[in-house]
Design brief:
Shape: globular
Number of strands: 0
Largest sheet: none
Strand content: under 5%
Order of helices and strands: HHHHHHHHHHHHHHHH
Radius of gyration: 23 Å
Number of helices: 16
Distance between the termini: 75 Å
Length: about 475
């Protein structure tokens, strides 16, 4: 029998004591009534909750973002043949790990007599199945929640870099933007009017983003979120159209990339596939949760197809000149400048949704220690500090491709690849339900994630340092010439 079934032994005010909120919680809150543990068991169906199609849309939205636009560069790092094959393999493994998480959550929630579990709670109760880990089960939950916070703040850093790079390009090419969308020889938008450094653009975005995260209830942003999703969808369609219709023949690109660049591919790819954080919130809010697995397979099948197709087609179209985001390679015409602006608007609104998770974890414990008079000012101050922190990180590393790869390698590898197989081993540890081949498979997946984490983090940090040194040398040379 487990040590902590219903009694919460955590100290009050712990940063990681409450269930982890999600974007889904913000836009689709649970219906009013008793708390979840007191309600009728929701997994067996009910009149409240999201439908099959609604859950599928949320799953697609939770997996499609800036990571998709960076996949052509990821394919370049892996090679024209090895890249798509690797994306397919990674997609299969990522979906399998999502399935493992749902399976373990079902088993543990039934065992603990709980309607639903968060990712962190599943890890906590899984550790309680192992006698020598039981005393430290809280560490499992806190570790998962910590990586969730790192991942969400990492997304916010990526958004700052993405917004600054794309808006900078639109502004610098404004005087030469035409209605002709013919591809130029370098496959890139011609920058004819140099403007400020991209880091100054990040600082320009800082005030409006701070105002955005002051929104007291994200349901107020739901209409804008819908508009943003439509704009991003339209932008993706135009990106696909341009890439497909401008592939250069004959195609003479490396079939296999350099071994040194493959860890960068891993980081970018796992960043794109890191939708595991929305799996349990979506499954818990379904009207008929028993239908979630078909939703998961259908949605992730679509996502994997989009990733492989855009990554491959984008690389075939722009070749060695592909940028950290495919939007940076679109031609200098109003149609595709509008694509950048529309996608930037979508990312701007999405920033508030990604920021919701770490804010709702880190701020409430502090608010409990503040008098009622100061609650609102302190809340706004903490939100501002968190946004400034993410902006500062983006300013320190203004390289879109390397930021994506670093965030993917550091945090997404743990959440998407390392933790789920370990959770299954712990969950069924005492029941003899896992055969040796299954256990070996789980260990292999976790090792793949660990190797990707180590190699991807090392190469990304090395490349960041190398690029900064190169920039400083170029800046010093420029001053010397003057």
């Amino acid at each position: 029998m487990m040590a902590t079934s219903d009694v919460d032994t955590r100290g009050e005010g712990s940063l990681f004591s409450d269930p982890i909120p999600s974007e889904m919680d913000a836009l689709c809150p649970s219906p009013p009534g008793p708390t979840r543990p007191q309600r009728t068991y929701e997994r067996i169906g009910g009149r409240e909750g999201t439908s099959f199609c609604q859950t599928l849309i949320h799953l697609l939205k939770g997996n499609i973002g800036t990571g998709l636009l960076g996949l052509p560069l990821a394919v370049k790092n892996a090679g024209l043949v090895l890249g798509p094959i690797s994306l397919l393999c990674m997609g299969v493994i990522a979906v399998h790990c999502m399935r493992l998480l749902v399976k373990c959550s079902h088993h543990l929630s039934a065992k603990m007599d709980r309607p639903s579990l968060s990712y962190g709670e599943a890890m906590e109760y899984g550790m309680e199945n192992v006698s020598w880990l039981r005393r430290h089960s809280q560490w499992g939950k806190q570790t998962v929640n910590l990586f969730l916070i790192i991942t969400q703040l990492g997304f916010c850093c990526v958004y700052f870099v993405f917004l600054s790079d794309n808006i900078k390009q639109v502004v610098e090419a404004a005087n030469t933007t035409t209605f002709s969308c013919q591809m130029n020889y370098t496959n890139q938008t011609q920058v004819l009017v140099p403007s400020f450094d991209s880091r100054l653009y990040m600082l320009c975005f800082l005030p409006p983003i701070i105002l955005l995260v002051f929104t007291p209830d994200l349901r107020y942003l739901a209409p804008l979120s819908l508009v943003a999703n439509l704009m991003m969808t339209a932008s993706l369609i135009l990106i696909y159209f341009y890439s497909l219709t401008n592939i250069k023949y004959p195609i003479d690109l490396p079939k296999v990339g350099r071994a040194k660049d493959y860890p960068l591919f891993f980081g970018t790819a796992i960043f794109a596939f890191e939708g595991i954080g929305v799996v349990l919130p979506l499954e818990n809010k379904m009207q008929r949760p028993q239908r979630f697995i078909p939703v998961l397979y259908s949605g992730m099948g679509i996502v994997t197809f989009l990733y492989i197709s855009l990554g491959t087609v984008g690389y075939m179209c722009f070749g060695e000149h592909i940028g950290g985001s495919i939007t940076l390679n679109l031609p200098n015409c109003w149609t595709y400048q509008a694509v950048k602006l529309l996608y930037c608007f979508g990312i701007f609104i999405t920033f508030a949704l990604q920021f919701y998770v770490p804010a709702e974890i880190l701020i409430p414990p502090v608010m409990e220690r503040v008098s009622q008079r100061w609650k609102t000012p302190v809340n706004l101050l903490l939100r501002s500090v968190m946004v400034v922190f993410t902006c500062a990180l983006a300013v320190l590393i203004p390289e879109l491709d390397l930021v994506i790869s670093l965030v993917g390698s550091v945090s997404s590898s743990f959440l998407a690849l390392i933790f789920p197989p370990i959770l299954e081993l712990m969950t069924f540890h005492t029941e003899g339900a896992l055969s040796p081949p299954v256990a070996a498979k789980n260990v292999a997946i976790s090792l793949i994630g660990l190797i990707g984490f180590l190699a991807g983090t090392y190469i990304a940090v090395e490349q960041i340092v190398a690029r900064n040194v190169l920039k400083h040398v170029e800046t010093f040379s420029g001053f010397s010439v003057q």
